[in-house]
Every structure is written in C-alpha cells, then in structure tokens.
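Cytochrome P450
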Amino acid sequence: MTAPAEPADEAVPPEFPMRRACPFSPPAAYAELRESEPVAPARLKVNGKRTWLVTRHDLYKKLLGDARVSANLKLPGYPLQVPVPEETLQSVPLTFLSMDPPDHTVQRRMLAPEFSVRRMRELRERVQQIVDQQIDQLLAKGAESPVDLVTSFALPVPSFVICELLGVPYEDHGRFEEWAWAIMNHEVSDEDRGRAHYELDRYVDGLVTAKESAPGDDMISRLIEFNRHTPAVEHSDIVSMSKLMLVTGHETTANMIALGTLALLEHPEQLAALRAEPELMPKAVEELLRFFSISDAGTARVALEDIELGDVTIRAGEGVLPLNNAANHDERVFPDPDRLDVRREARSHLAFGYGVHQCIGQNLARLELDVVYTTLFRRLPTLRLATPVEKLRFKDDAIVYGLYELPVTW
Ligand code: HEM
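Structure:
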C-alpha cells in the first residue's frame, strides 16, 4: 500500500496529543470535538503527519469493530506516536498487538486461557499475599515517611504479579521496568529507545531459551509446551509474546494504582462511600478505569479500505486514533462524565479498547486494582498526600498516562 497524498487543508488541524488543563479531566478540546466534529482531522506532534481523531463512544466502537482497519504499525499512514526511524520500524518483529487476523488470532488463542475469569479467581489469594507483603514493607518504612507510593508500591505489585505469572525472576525488575519505560515514553531519544528494545529482546530471548530446556510452572513454559505438541508459532514469536506480556503487564496497572489512589484521596466523599459499602469496589474499579482512561490513544489503526464513519470518509491508507478518554467522557453514555462516582454503572467503558485487540489482561488488571485499593485503604486508614496535587508530576509525555511520583504519609 502506498501512503495517501496529504489533502490540501483549508484550516490547519489541531495538534495531537493535546494537553490536559486539569489532571483529572481529558483535554478540553475533546468535548468540543465530540459535539462539533466527532471524526476530526489532526496533526501528530511527533512528525506533523495527518491523522483522524474519533471522540464519540458509538463511533469508537464502530471503528474498532470494523475488519477494514489494521493495527499494523509498519503500514504507511499508521499514526505512530513515538519517533521511530523507518529502518528500525521495518526491522523490528511485530508483536501480536500489531498483527491482524489470522496471525493475531493464532497467538491470542494460545494466551487466552491464561487470563480466563477462572484463572483470575484462582490467583486472587496470591495477589492478596503480594499486596500484603508490599504493605508490610511500607509500614516498616513508616518512620521514614513520606514515602513515594509509585516506586514503593504501585510499580512493585503488578511487576511482582506478572513476573510470577510469566516465570521471570523479580530480581531483574529494575532492568525491564527501565526498558519498558524507554519504549513507551515520547521524550526518550531514538537511540535510547532502540537500545531498550534490543536489550529487552535479548533478555527475554535468554529466558525463553532457558525454559525450552528446563521448563517451570509458568506461562512462558506452558506456551512452549503447547507449541511443542501443537506447533503454531516460532521460537521468536514466543519471545515477542512474552516481551509484550512483560511490558504491558506492569506499567499500565501501576499507573492506575497510583492515579486511583490519588483520585480517592482527593474525593473523600467517594472514599467514604467505599468504606461504608466495600461491596461497591468492583464498580469503583470500572469507574476509575473510565475516569482516567490511561491508554487514551493506545488503539491506533490504519484504514485498509475507504470507511464511512460519522460524516466523513476515512480513505484507505489514512491513520485513525480512536480516543478512549474522549469516548469514556461521552455524556450520551456517561451522564456528568467528569464527575467521579463510584456508584456509576461504568462497565461499558472503553479503557481496555474494543474489538479483536481488546485488552487480554483486563481481568488481571481488575483483580489487582480491586485487591490493591481495598487493602491499601483498610491497612493504612490515615493515608494522605504528602505533597499538594498542584506539585505532582503527571505523565503527560507518555503513551500511558500516570504519575511520576506520589509522596504519601499516614
Ligand atoms: C491490549 C489497556 C492491563 C496486556 C490493550 C488495549 C488497551 C489496553 C486499550 C487495546 C490495544 C489496541 O486495541 O490496539 C490496558 C489498561 C490496563 C491494561 C488500561 C490496566 C489498567 C494489561 C495487563 C496485561 C495487558 C495487566 C497483562 C498481560 C495486553 C495485551 C494487549 C493489550 C497483550 C494486546 C491484545 C491484542 O492485541 O489482542 N490493553 N491494559 N494489559 N493489553 Fe492491556
């Protein structure tokens, strides 16, 4: 496919990403676009290329449910949000996040049983132990408070969990957390990002190779074993699947732990409702996922054919960014959308995307968030911020929204 010609614009489209004026709300322009132009052109800040933004809930689902869009980031027109030199782009192997059916389906099917509701139910007790261990360590540090909740709790919990699931030694967490961060940050140099990809690849390749001869009781070993009996993929695919799990499995949930904790501390009436009715927690988790929609532009696509969406035609070869932070604040679906309401029925949110690529780890994320918020506020009932919100640094520069630090005391 060749790149489409840049249309001659009457007006210069707005730049993307757009900044938030308030850390608890989407950029103000989202609400305006949703009403006036729910499928609107924009220019990517990273390279000035034109793309489409989709801001309405129904149109978001329509687009991501359409088999005529591709997730293949190597296609011209795909709206990349980090600068990647063309040569590097074409040389890196695709993970299944960026594959289309049928290749995508083969790998997704191999992994799906690992994330079933039943598996997650069986995992609850172990997640609870991990969360309790981390809180014991926080309490032991008590005398030194304030403590940074991001490095001493929000990141270790999901890192520990995904390490155990995959069979990755937790001692190595410092290294893979750094590589993952470099891969997902807009402002890291090309050279550093390239190095992070290379080193993470080599690290995971080493792990997979070791498990091929000495399997353990873990997800990577089960993938290898399954593939030995029912050959479906190559060694390099198992490496890329494992790498994808390791990267996506900790950073996202860590950001939600920190942001969700902050939001509940800043909305004491919502926290009080949860304390009075702990059974509200599953609803609160959905609402916090909706409220922050941390992977706002994480579902980039490119059109394979001309697609009518709303009032526009997205031409074959053009890039599209369905924005889940915009769709999740659509008042047609979520009345008074900027208000955090732990009693809201928010389950139809799109924080995990929609369609064939909808987050495979969503039940794991839900489990971790439920156990984390419940246990943290129960065991540290006097938890409070040690720095005013205005001084906190939010990850406005990253693909996944979050907090750099969250100093707390109790
Ligand atoms: C896909 C968000 C946690 C693994 C996705 C997508 C979103 C998302 C929006 C769709 C991407 C697309 O359509 O292109 C989130 C959020 C999380 C979270 C907000 C936490 C709060 C996790 C966890 C894992 C995980 C814990 C664990 C392994 C994946 C994978 C995919 C994915 C492998 C690709 C699925 C596919 O292409 O079929 N996630 N995720 N995610 N997520 Fe998550």
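The radius of gyration is 21 Å.
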